[in-house]
Design a protein that fits this description.
By secondary structure, the protein is mainly alpha-helical. Helices cover 72% and strands 3% of the residues.
């Protein structure tokens, strides 16, 4: 079973007029847990899915299928994972670009260290 995009959960919660606090109380978790889910992925364990779906007035299967359809239609709005960000940076700048940035930063740190040592001698 795949995890559900948090953007889909946020969309459903807002459509039903539920605040973070009210929704969290309905499913017996903290408000910060719901916030984390909405910013990334909803865990795929059956107990959470059943409670979430029940609080939203649907079955777990409807919630899971709706989450898949939401992501497939481009409605995914959850925050990207670090792996996704790294892939985008590599795709845009390439490995050579990343090496160049690293070398530039290393050279700058070296020169700062040399200048500081000259100032305090």
């Amino acid at each position: 079973m795949d995890a559900i995009d948090g953007g889909y959960l946020r969309k459903l919660r807002k459509e039903r007029g539920l605040s973070l606090r009210a929704f969290a109380q309905k499913i017996y978790v903290s408000k910060s847990t719901v916030q984390r889910w909405e910013q990334s992925r909803v865990p795929a364990d059956g107990e959470n899915m059943a409670r979430i779906a029940g609080a939203l007035g649907m079955t777990a299967d409807e919630f899971i299928e709706g989450g898949r359809n939401h992501a497939a239609s481009g409605g995914a709005t959850a925050a990207p994972y670090a792996d996704d960000i790294e892939k985008k940076v590599k795709a845009e700048f390439g490995l050579k670009g990343m090496k160049a940035v690293f070398l530039f930063v290393a050279a700058a740190l070296f020169f700062v260290a040399v200048l500081l040592s000259l100032l305090f001698v």
